[in-house]
Amino acid sequence: MTASSTSLSAPVARPSRRGTGTRTRPVADTARSSLRARDRSGYLFVAPFAVATGLFLLWPTVYGLWMSFTDQSLTATESSFIGIDNYVEAFSDPQVWTTLWHTVWFTVLSTVPLVVVALLMALLVHTGLPGQWVWRMSFFAPFLLTSAVVSSLASWLFQPEIGLLDVWLAKLGLGPVGWLTDENVAMFSIALVTVWWTVGFNFLLYLAALQGIPQQQYEAATIDGAGGWRRLFSITLPQMKTITGVIVVLQLLASLKVFDQIYLLTAGGPNGSTRPILEYVYDMGFTNYRLGYASAISYVFFALILVFTLVRLLPTKKEA
Amino acid sequence: MAVSESVSTMVAARRSTAQQTRAENRTLTKLTIGPSPWVRAGALAALVVVAALWLLPLAWGAVTSFKHEAEAALPASWWPSQGWTLDAYRQVLGNSELLGWMWNSLVVAVLVTALTVLISAMAAFAFSQTLFKGRSLLQFLTVASIMMPGQILIVPLFKQMQALGLVDTFAGIVLPQVVAPVMVFILKRFFDAIPAELLDAARIDGAGTWRLFWTIVLPLSRSILVAVAIFVFIGAWNNFLWPFIVTTDPQFMTLPVGLSTVKNAYGVQYAQNMASAMIAALPLLVVFMLFQRRIVQGVATTGMGGQ
């Protein structure tokens, strides 16, 4: 954990009212407590969470898998088992591959700047220059907006001719650009909006990591005559490797699930050129009423995410 | 007396922390980019430019929202020639269901936060400080379910909500959102660090498990609980996909969902669009300004999902 704050560190034992002197002993291995072993009421404490998880996570997972083998429709109550027909159809459905590609393309387009820009922002703020509060607020504020507000603001900026971006480009004698209407541009515009919207989160993760670097290292390097750039490349950046790995993985997983901003900005258009796979699932299920087929596509997508997650777990295990 | 004394101590403490922070920042500047005024000016200029770029969309939205509708659609000017007006806000607040949606969002976000924090903390406590049959299995399932992306469950979940009669109800919006295995994991790691002696001493004194949880574990963990709560609240307030799927009746829509339906209805009413965006953005921005430090810490602690 890279949090630098002291108030969020693990609680320190305070001497209890009756003075059992717990302060003198270090944190004990809780597993060895014999009294805990006798405390068997745990299942009551875990019950609400277990029930909620069972009902709203595990059951839909199983139910969805079952549904993917049926011809379930949104309106009908009855459905019949059709084996792997949905999967056969999904693998030969060009729209599945196209929308899957859009999702992957968006993930690539958004992840790189979302990591690089976040790191640059954090490095700039970590210089300790005055105005810390303002910088944090400006970079993180968009993250607090809901997707509907983000797309309202963005579609106003992207408005053809009268939007701020086209107006500015016109002053330079350029444009107009079909920000959301040109098939070759729309996905870049959406990635741009996404970077603006969510980079603040990665920025804060990087900032916390930077604050975790011991100052003595900088002091020692300064004494040894290392300049600012040298300190950046020899001390700061090498220590950002681990956190960068974590942020990249979290970002990839987040970007793969893109739906909101695309649905609200272009509804998958122009001409289906930005439609992500989650929107295809939504369209199949809730516009075409084909829940069985929509479930099958969900599971194809889930398999992709799962493979990705498991691959990423492998090196972690080796390290441990 | 005691109160005023403690207040003045607090004020003094806060002032000295501010001074300390400033001194720390100066040291940091020296250590990271060195004493050169040119490098400092360059870094500061870069910060100003990036911050201005990042605030631009919000600032432009705000300016537009205070314009007359007729002027809003004219090519961009930062200073309207017809003067500023609250017309767009009056229209939006008067005609639409915006305030109702905001209330729905508040109810949903508060319920989701309270329920999530409570059941996650209870489960984390059970995993961390008690033994019961099937504990390891449940713990394994919890960690495994972190990998489950909720987005792919929209189809079966909707069918399930239909069967339960929970479509277009608050329960239908809230309940699927309270399952947060990541939070259980984060809280468990925190509870693990509570010294066993402390709990054993309380047990010897005859405290039941519930008392142990309620009077020792929770108060000791206030900071992490606040961090988790903030995180869950922001997520629930802004959540779009699930509320969008499970509500069709405008009466039960949350702010993000309602807003997305209104956008089409207004068409080219740019000032009104921006006014509703500003109203929707305001609550969390104010919350952030008030609790910046806590939120920044909270994101750092919970954001990585306990990695």
TrEMBL record, chain A:
Give its localization. Answer: Cell membrane
Chief location of this protein within or outside the cell:
membrane
State the annotated membrane topology for this chain: Multi-pass membrane protein
Assigned keywords, A-Z: Cell membrane, Membrane, Transmembrane, Transmembrane helix, Transport
Keyword Transport part of the UniProt annotation: yes
Family matches, as PROSITE patterns: ABC_TM1 (PS50928)
Show the stretches that span the lipid bilayer: 42-66, 104-125, 137-158, 185-208, 240-259, 291-314
Which Pfam families does the record match to this protein? BPD_transp_1
Q: Family, per the entry?
A: Belongs to the binding-protein-dependent transport system permease family.
PANTHER family (alphabetical): ABC TRANSPORTER PERMEASE PROTEIN, DIACETYLCHITOBIOSE UPTAKE SYSTEM PERMEASE PROTEIN NGCF
Q: What is this protein called?
A: Sugar ABC transporter permease
From TrEMBL, chain B:
Q: Which Gene3D superfamilies match?
A: MetI-like
Q: How does it sit in the membrane?
A: Multi-pass membrane protein
InterPro entries documented for this protein: MetI-like, MetI-like_sf
> Where is the chain membrane-spanning?
38-60, 101-125, 137-158, 170-191, 212-237, 270-291
Chief location of this protein? membrane
Q: Which residues form the ABC transmembrane type-1 domain?
A: 102-291
Supply the CDD domains for this chain.
TM_PBP2
The lineage's top-level taxon is Bacteria
Pfam families the UniProt entry points to:
BPD_transp_1 (PF00528)
Report keywords, A-Z.
Cell membrane, Membrane, Transmembrane, Transmembrane helix, Transport
**Cellular location(s):** Cell membrane
Q: Which family does it belong to?
A: Belongs to the binding-protein-dependent transport system permease family.
Identify this protein by name: Carbohydrate ABC transporter permease
Q: From what organism does this protein derive?
A: Isoptericola peretonis
